[in-house]
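Aim 2, interim progress. The first record below pairs a target sequence with its structure tokens.
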Amino acid sequence: MTETGVQAGSSPAASPPVHYAPTWAADGDTRQRPPLVGDEREILTGYLEWHRATFELKCSGLPADRLSERSVPPSGMSLHGLIRHLAGVERWWFHIQFAGEKAPMLHYSDEDPDQDFDDLSGDPAQALALWREQCEHSRDIVAAAPSLDATGIHAASGDPVSLRRVLVHLIAEYAQHNGHADLLRERIDGATGN
């Protein structure tokens, strides 16, 4: 594919162009594209930052009460729930498992494992601020790690888990939930984007 979305060697008539520009308000899209070249850490962290910024963009510009709408029934998901969930994911993977911090879980307990999506009490703006704090702390952890081979302890198995594996997992987690967020946002106000 070329920059226009047309395969090299094919005519535009044979393959309609694919448009990659976001349909969000151009002024609101401040995402930095992931690097095309770089070492493994630069590529992985670049993609994770892209997905974090994409998620924040999908949550931006809505009144707080609309973030809590469960707009794609029968799913119980909402943007507010996704904010809470991803804050917990950041803490669980980077802070607790990789860095070994003794921090309480966010929006989760064995008795109530789905509270991140089910309990939408509280201010969505505060949930978003907490998510941002968790992301910033995760960035600090990644920056301090000597290499992607550095390990923490995978809680479910007790086995070592590398920073490389954690980064790949978080990229996949955000990619999945950005798809959910896109559907939720489209149902709320018609906004779509990539």
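The second target in this work package is listed in the same format:
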Amino acid sequence: MRAEQMCPCGSGTPLSSCCGPVIDDPRVTTTAEQLMRSRYTARALGRWNHLWVTWHPRTRPELADEDGLRWTGLEVLRAEAGTAGDDAGVVEYRASYREGARPGVLHEVARFQRRAGRWFYVDGDVLDA
């Protein structure tokens, strides 16, 4: 029997009961933090379509694809609003990666908006790691 893959988002739970269902159907997302975690997991797993479909139509790029990085860890620093009763939310996080042999950290304060009952990533401010 094979052990189930743990979710890359760092929640300590299996992918199938954490970000997996959100990556398969973003409509099941209930919070901005949950969407942010699923977007990190999608990057770690190379599921680029999830990034594109969860990016707000007003700010998303033409294409979301391979970034050449190997994502190695996620730390959520804070989440403000972004629950079922909110229309907007903010999540600050640090995402670790490797680019070849060189380590790096993306530190972002990300903004999310709920539109037609679904959470979307709008944009963010990248901070010094």
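The two ends are 40 Å apart (CA to CA). This observation will shape the mutagenesis plan for the next reporting period.
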